[in-house]
Every structure is written in C-alpha cells, then in structure tokens.
Amino acid sequence: MMQKILIANRGEIASRIIKTCNKMGIQTIAIYSDADKDLPFVSEATTSYRIGEAPVGKSYMNQKAILDIVKKEKVDAVHPGYGFLSENASFAEIIRKEGTIFIGPNSKTIQMMGDKLLSRKKMLEAGIPVVPGSNEELTTEEEAVAAANSIGYPVILKASGGGGGIGMVRCEDEKTLRKNLETTKKRAKTYFANEKVYVEKYIQYARHIEVQIFGDKLGNIVHLFERDCSIQRRHQKVVEESPSPFLTEGAKEKMLQAAVRAAKAVGYENAGTVEFIVDEEENFYFLEMNTRLQVEHPVTEAITGMDLVEWQILVARGEILPYKQEELESKGHAIEFRLYAEDPVSFLPSPGHIEVLDWGKGDTRVDSGYKEGVVVTPFYDPMIAKCIVHGENRNEAIEKASVFFNQLQIQGIKTNAPLFKHIINDADFKTGKYFTNYLSVKKFN
Predict the structure, then answer these.
(1) Integer Cα distance of 210 and 234 in angstroms
(2) Which of 86, 103, 120 corresponds to the end of one domain?
(3) Percent of the chain with pLDDT over 70
(4) Same domain as 224, residue 176
(5) Three-class SS of residue 319?
(6) Contact assessment for residue 420 and residue 442, using Cβ atoms and an 8 Å cutoff
(7) Are 169 and 215 within one domain?
(8) The dihedral formed by the CA atoms of 425, 430, 433 and 439, expressed in degrees to the nearest 10
(9) Does residue 115 sit in helix, strand or coil?
(10) What is the pLDDT of residues 212-270, one digit of tens each?
(11) Is 145 exposed, middle or buried (0-12, 13-18, 19+ CB in 10 A)?
(12) Which domain holds residue 150?
C-alpha cells in the first residue's frame, strides 16, 4: 500500500495528482519554488517543501534536493507528472535504488523510447510503420543530404532526444538542410545532452493522432482509444479531441492495435502514449512514445470515465489493470483547450498578475494551477489551465466550448482565449477538416 506520495512537479498537474490521492486516502508531499509559493497546489498537499529558487535547475530539476525530501519524508512513491524529470531515466533509477516507487515505466524503457533513433529501430523490429527517414545519426552534411535525397524534400531535421517541438527544423531543400544541421546538433546537445540528429519526411497534410496505452507489471496492456492533437502552434499541441473526426473506424482500429503492439514490444508498464502521424489517405506512421502521463489525459478520462492517475498508482504498486480491453468503452466526444498566458496572435508568453479569473457557470472541467490574485511568472510554461468539454457528440461538445469561452473572464494578462473563439467558429474546425498546419494557414487575428 502507498501511504505517502511526493509529487515532483508543480501547478495544475500537481493539483490534479493531489485530487486523486485525496480520493484514495494517500498523503501528498508537494515541492515548490520561490516563484510558486502562492499557487494552490502548495496548500492543497498534505505537506509542502520549498525546493529552491525560481529557475528550474535550482528547483524542479534539482534531483539532489528532491531526493533529500524523499529520504526525509520516507515517501512510498514519487509521481513525476509531465515535463521536468518525468522522462529522465537516471532520476527514475535513482528513486528506485532508494527503495521508492517511481510512478511510471522502468528506466530502461524511458531511456530507449526517449531516444527517437532507438525507438524508430525498435518499432521497425516490431513491424510498426515509421515515418520514412534516416535510422542512423547524421554526423556530416553529406550524410544528411544523402538521407534527405533518398526520401525527397521537404524533410524535418530532428533531435533524437527532442520533445515538445524543440529541436525540429523543416527543410525545403538542400541549402536549408546544410544551413541548419550544425545549429540543430548544438541545440540538441544544449537542451537534451544528446547531439544526435536525423531526418524524416515532412508530410504536409498530416494529422497528429496519439493512442493512450496502459500496461501493468504482469504484462497486460490495453489502449484507451485515440486523441487527435492536430491543432498545434510551433509543433506544440493546443487543442486535443477524441474521437478523432478524421479517422474511419477501420483505420482507427488498425492504429489502436499497432499502439498495443508497440507497447508490448518494449514491455511497457504504467501510462504511456504512442504517437502517430497520419497522411491524407489514413496511412499512419510511428512518431514517438511518451513515457509518462500526457497533458491531454483528461480527454481520455472524459470519454472513458476513468481516473488515469488512479490507474497509475494502482499499477505502480503492483496491481493488475483495473479493466480488460473489452470492458473499456468510448462514450461521447471530448475536446481540451490549453489556455495559455500568451499573446493570441504572436503566441509570445504574457506573464503578469491575474486580477480577475472567473471560469463562468457550466459543466466544463477546468484543471488549473492558478487562482485569482496570483502571478503568472516567466520561469515556467505559461499554461494556466486546461479546459475540457464533453458532449454526447462533437457538435454538442463544440457548443459547450462556445458557451464556456463566452463566459470566461480573465483580466491582468493576455491569453489565447480569443484564438479558441476563432477556432470554435471556423468552418474547417466544425467539419473536422484540419491538419497540423491549421494555425499557420488560418493566421487568426
């Protein structure tokens, strides 16, 4: 049994984990930086510890400081949330060596799937289709050019250890590829301590669709259906929905089964996501596997009625998956909107003091790490909330979203709420006819 869990994260995901722990009768230990001392999660936890100054290296990424608290509090488990140390294999291993449970997959899986080149090779071995591209590290311009020529331009130059859109450069021709190779390698080394890069074919009219998978320690693996994450800015998701309005049932079933095979190929445990890129003909290709809980997990919770954080805890303490595949069902339609403190046109962060924050009335689920009167600082990701609507069908979900954003009141900071109003009323969105280039093509203002 787990009696005490340390949450190695902040903001809304910390609050989200605390909510489930409270339901399960588990004590929570929160850590917070100087910049976050007034945020709700600090007081919501059973016990909270100042972890350090605002910069992530001195706070949420400070493994030694976190480990000291783990030892002091004698916690049973550590939940890393997402981001920060959630996909850090060495951190997971350090936690386990202390005799503490890391709520996530084992460090070997994290390391393997965190390297995109290694994961591509593993998926090819398992018979999972991958995006056409190079399967080896590109060390010279000539190697990069040869690889690009073999698949045809445009291509995406990618950091093998990258994520969240960082370390990705679209190259239209050989000149652009040569120009960006060394820069991308240096950036990859700076951000991910891994300078390996490779190229993939750029699919111009593509959907980004992912599958939620779950595995237990006994080898059982299920999927909890798909999420369409094709509306993005700078390769980062801003709107996610399920079911996908694009996939036919036949193509969806093939993708769901491919995701389960991918998870079985690496002996996956706990929550994970298998991400695919899908072309206009519904051909799908493996992109990557995220070895953690996703930001957009509430979409899956809305359509299945499941608590994925509870599943994580049950599996981490050795229990069998709560449900078999045939017992899982997708009901209705859910859409998540990531509300950011940012300029809705330039997408530049807009930190500041939240003077007014009123979510309005309705049944929209709001997972937020902030409250009225606190400050959104420039030190972390500027997402202030996830707003999730669920309806019997897609049209009803869109209508609920429209009501929510018309009632929403935020003053003191800029947000991307106006962008969502444009999206909700856009004909292409309403009909589900959009691709990953949607925002760059539409240019709402």
Answers:
(1) 18
(2) 103
(3) 100
(4) no
(5) coil
(6) no
(7) no
(8) 30
(9) coil
(10) 999 999 999 999 999 999 999 888 999 999 999 999 999 999 999 999 999 999 999 99
(11) middle
(12) 132-201
**What is the CATH number for 68?**
3.40.50.20
Task: From 41, 77, 25, 11, select the one nearest 312 (Cα to Cα).
Answer: 77
pLDDT tens readout for residues 7-18 = 999 999 999 999
Residue 325 lies in a domain: yes
332 and 378 both lie in a single domain:
yes
- Residues with catalytic function: 292
Both 186 and 223 in one domain: the answer is: no
Asked if 305 and 388 sit in the same domain, the reply is yes
From residue 374, how far is each of 34, 302, 403, 413 by CA, in Å? 13, 29, 26, 11
Residue 368 in this model has a pLDDT that exceeds 70: yes
Tell the residue number behind the tokens 């979409």, with chain if given.
Answer: 299
User: How many domains does the chain divide into?
Assistant: 3
264 in a structural domain: yes
Comparing CA positions, the residue from 338, 264, 266, 260 lying closest to residue 298 is 338
Candidates 154, 277, 150, 134; CA nearest to 196 is 134
Q: Is the CB of residue 198 less than 8 Å from the CB of residue 144?
A: no
